[in-house]
Amino acid sequence: MSLYDSMRHDVEEFVDLNFGKCSENEKSHFAATLTQEFDAVLGTLNAHTDEPHLRDALRALKKLQEHLVILPVDKTSHDFGFICKEKYKELVRNELQQSSTYQQLDSSVESILQQHQAFNKSHNFPHSNILPYLYGIPKLHKPQPRMRYIAGVSEKGNAEKKDEQKVQDERRAHKKQPKTRASTTPAHQEASGILKLVLATLQGKDEVSRAKTGIRRFFVVESIDGVAVHIKTNYARLRKKTPRTFDFKEMYTKIPQQRIVDYVMLAVLEAFEYAKSEKGFDLKAQRSKHRFEFSNAEAADMTAYSVEEIRELVEFIVGNTFVTNGGRCYQQVTGIPMGGNASPDLANLYCYWCEKLYIDSLIAEGRHEEARAHADSVRFIDDFLTWGVRPPPEAIYGMEYSETSKGVDDVVFLGMRIRAERDIKTDYIRLSVLDKGEEFPWYPIKYTHAESTVPRNTGTSIFKGALIRAARICNNMPDLKVEIMKVYYRLRNRGFSGRELRHVFDTFVTQTYGKYELDARVLSRFYYYVGKAYDEGRPTNVEKRFIGIRAPQQPAAPPESPSPPNE
Q1: CA nearest neighbour of 232 among 190, 224, 345
Q2: If you write DSSP's letter for every residue of 282-322 in order, what string do you get?
Q3: How far apart are CA 236 and CA 232, in angstroms?
Q4: In terms of pTM, does the model score above 0.90?
Q5: Is 91 helix (H, G, I), strand (E, B) or coil?
Q6: What pLDDT digit, counting tens, does each position of 83-93 carry?
Q7: Predicted confidence (pLDDT) per residue in 470-526, tens digit
Q8: Which DSSP symbol is given to 74?
Q9: Is 144 exposed, middle or buried (0-12, 13-18, 19+ CB in 10 A)?
């Protein structure tokens, strides 16, 4: 399938799914206009796919941007959204001018970049002579679509200058992706490495303390794997509790910046003191290549940071978020930048200190059982999962949060659905993979096409990763089977080979048998029927909202003609 055919097919699906409720005249008008515009542009692209005419094809694609802005859709990287250019400019302008997050400056961009250059030079950081810009991406999986605003960076203005032809050759060969940097990017990257070391140290300290007291202060998790393992390990205790999920509102834009710096540095100091108590001497956070560790050895090739130097770094990245828009410069005066390398680590450490203060206050008041009730609570940046309790009060964080549970005993956390099924005899926790594509009004494209410019093993790698993820999350065979069937159908519909997918599945069952307590024989038999149903049914609507969990029914055979009566 060519790029033209693939995109033309997506346009037809879009028209069919999104104009169905319009009147016939409106639907015909919008459909004809949209398809005509796409045919004009994509037809040019289809006619010029060879290298000499690639520039003409790109110029044709840019026609779409005369009145539309093409944006990636939040939560689905393979889909693009179209928004009126004037409406988009209005939304970004309102975010900068009407919200309390940003403040317009009289200072010139050049003067700010000079200050950043001086800071980078004093820390031996490379300098990119450009500020971030603010852009928004649509959150279309929400009931009321809105924008997520990100401080983006560009490869323009980079300090490193290379021959343009060499850069183009590298990109075509897929050997090197263009680096995108802003003047604060090196400081963000350095701080992120240090703060990750701090988080890991605090997690280790909390694990030792929790083993003795049963009280948890460190709620941070980095992925769903640890959460699923924790639930399965503590299944007997958790199955009697009610899972609940919560979501912080506007975490990145509402916290006072000085409070962020103070709380983060208190957490940094705690990590340094704990590491010192473990090793018995003063330490610094040192970097060798891309790794940070606590050490007192100052080798020539290692950069070391004291607590005071880390504070200087944190203050710089929190207080120096500037974005440009329409030739004007704005400074973020509350919160931390969405899109910064260190931003998730800053948010995690800030919330960690808030949660630590709350748990310590419960202990000081003798409310130890209330403190232990949070022992199973976990948080992934701004998403919270608790069992039978609410998170610490909003006043502790200085932020509002809302409960996002789908219903009683039914929650979703990091792509995992947790359902507590209860009856008279027993309580049961059911873990399954949640397909976030089901939250969209259309089913998003999750995987590239087999005939596109991707490595041949892309489909097998995707399938292997999906199998491992499903096995780690699911604790029951029916949900595991459904997830395997979904991924298999989608990959086959994207043109990937059934034989290669079968080889991946056989390897998966052989290597992981027993590791995830799977029944290899049941899975192998099930997979055989899945492949057979696909080959016989040839489902064509898997990419749509119905998902295609089962193969479409074959057309019913025509009824047999009745036998003529005996004469």
Answers
A1: 224
A2: --EEEEETTEEEEES---TT-EEE-HHHHHHHHHHHHH--E
A3: 9
A4: no
A5: helix
A6: 888 888 888 88
A7: 888 988 888 888 888 888 888 888 888 888 888 888 888 777 655 655 566 666 666
A8: T
A9: exposed
